[in-house]
Amino acid sequence: MSYQVLARKYRPQKFSEVIGQEHVTRTLKNAIEQGRTAHGYIFSGHRGIGKTTIARILAMALNCRSADKPVAEPCGICESCTEIRAGNAVDVIEIDAATNRGIDEIRELREAARYRPARDRFKIYILDEAHQITDAAFNALLKTLEEPPGHVIFMMATTQPEDIPQTIRSRCQHFSFRAVGFEQIMGQLRDLMGREKIEAEEDALALVAEAGDGSMRDALSILDQAIASSSGKLTAEEVRNLIGSAPAAALEEVMEAVAQSSSEQVLRLVDRLISEGHSPVHFARQLVRFLRNVTVAKVAGTESSLLQISSDERRRVGRVAERFGEEDLARHFQIMLRTHAELGYRQEQRFHLELGLLKMAHAQRLVPLEELLGNVSGAPRATSKPAPVAEIKRPEASRPSAVSPFAADAARKNRSNPELSTESVTSVATAPAVVFGSSAPAAAPQRAPEPAPEPKIALAPEPVSEADLRATVLQAIASSGQRMLLNMLEAGEWKVEGSELIIKVASSPAVIDMSLSNDARRMITASASTALGRPIKLRVLPGGTAQAAPSTASASNGGGRSRAEQDPVVRRMKEKFGAEIRTIIDYREKR
User: Fold this and answer.
1) pLDDT for the residue 427
2) Delimiting residues of CATH 1.10.8.60 domain(s) in the chain
3) CATH 3.30.300.180-classified regions of the chain
4) Ranges of the chain whose pLDDT falls below 70
5) 438: number of CA atoms within 13 Å, CB side?
6) Angle CA(333)–CA(215)–CA(130) in degrees, nearest 5?
7) Of 570, 578, 571, 576, whose CA–CA distance to 413 is shortest?
8) Phi and psi, residue 505, nearest 5°
9) Which end of the chain lies in a sparser environment, N or C, as judged by fewer CB atoms within 10 Å?
10) What is the number of alpha carbons within 13 Å of residue 119 lying toward its C-beta?
């Protein structure tokens, strides 16, 4: 007798033997017991998870001759059960819809369905890969499927249920199958290895279950091949060599090199793996899965049920998760997903893999944009209480210490301009624990309080006149491109009374409402409050008289450059990025 592969030898013959599809088997058994079997079924889901197997078991249960009616569990020994299991039953017709997909084949099926079964209770048609049937063929089957003879039952198995017309799906009961869980596959593999009396390492079975990717049939096929390649006991190293996987320790070494931002070490590891014959595409896929598990371990812990891996692999991903922050892992995960997608259609796959790993190593040295912008704006992000620098600073495990190029450039300019260096140390009463400027230390040292020297230039906004307030607000409106609103407010009468900015314009209330939107009102209020250094409200009233706008010369005489140099945001931009004020453009020049 020829050898029978494990996937066929241990194919389930009863509903109770099917694993991972309890929601389907329970419903079908209850329907048989209650006499509520339908005339059409659609079984959809991932490959190798039991769609055709359950269709055969259902056919055996409906035609089993151990009783005078359908049974919930087929006996497996009667003539009908043995013929269905062997695939040569007269009244159970299995059709490969991939090759019998035309309208002529469906017409023959429809004509044959009119005749009663030769021996069994039901004439059952099992259509595998039913989504490949043409639309014309489905239309020919439509009437028969809607009102079939009482002795006919259709069962359609497919991996793409969305390709089956809605008119067909609405006439059948649709069962969506699930991917088999990692632990369920592991349990089945242990049981089969015990039946076959073959020793196997737990890690070897875990590799087979993970390679199965939710498919029991794929896992059994890999296991069959691994048993043939082993010499006695099945080991993890043999399985890894068989499926072409890189050693799990190599993945950890790569992430360790990334954590240290060691580009040379990353390139050496890639060269070693490729020299050993590993595929760049397969390695990238492994690293994507590994990073996913590390991210889950960081978020939910190493004992989370979201991790479908062995205990040894849990410890490994736990060690790597301790080296990175959650944001870093999400960034690395995204980089490798993009790299793996690109490797599928690129010529030089090794170069693209190396580029993706180098991006991960360089990402460790990047300073978050939020942190830079927070330092420039002078105000940390809103929190319940001011956090000290030691809490704001990222841990050393997340990012190695590196000098920002912006800070280095600012330090170089500070050495050439001692006054700027002195000013950068001058404090602002916004956050006591944060010191701005490239020459300031990252964390304020703990020392005895000393008399603070009198600051040369205060960074707090100085009181401004109404003319300066007017110029600031009109500049903001001009930058937003609202010409109509600019012309109306420019000719108005401006006045600050208490906490209100009152502007009287020579326009009707209807024109004011049309020109002054909610967004424009918020923009004017924000710019006015910033200029005055306190919250202020806006009122635009009709009844003003048109007046000429102040000239550019008068605006320039107001000290536009000096005000720009004393602006806190401008000063911090100069300190952080080494910016220089070269040109001051008045908003009237844009007209």
Assistant:
1) 39
2) 182-243
3) 466-566
4) 1, 367-464, 544-560, 584-591
5) 24
6) 110
7) 578
8) -120, 155
9) N
10) 12
Q: What number does CATH give the domain 6-176?
A: 3.40.50.300
Using alpha carbons only, give the angle 110, 116, 120 rounded to the nearest 5 degrees: 120
**Residue 586: what pLDDT?**
56
Q: Maximum CA pair distance of the chain?
A: 108
Name the CATH architecture for the domain at 182-243.
Orthogonal Bundle (1.10)
Give the pLDDT confidence score for residue 433 in this predicted structure.
40
What is the pLDDT at residue 278?
85
In DSSP terms, 505 is beta-bridged to 542
Q: Please tell us whether the domain made up of 466-566 is placed in CATH 3.40.50.1110.
A: no
Question: Percent of the chain having pLDDT more than 90?
Answer: 31
What is the spatial distance between Cα 398 and Cα 412, in angstroms, rounded to a whole number?
Answer: 28
> Which run of H or E residues covers position 128?
strand 123-128
Rounded to whole angstroms, how far apart are CA atoms 289 and 336? 10
Assigned CATH for 248-363:
1.20.272.10
pLDDT at 157: 94
| pTM for this predicted structure | 0.59
Q: What is the pLDDT of residue 545?
A: 62
Which residues of the chain form CATH 3.40.50.300?
6-176
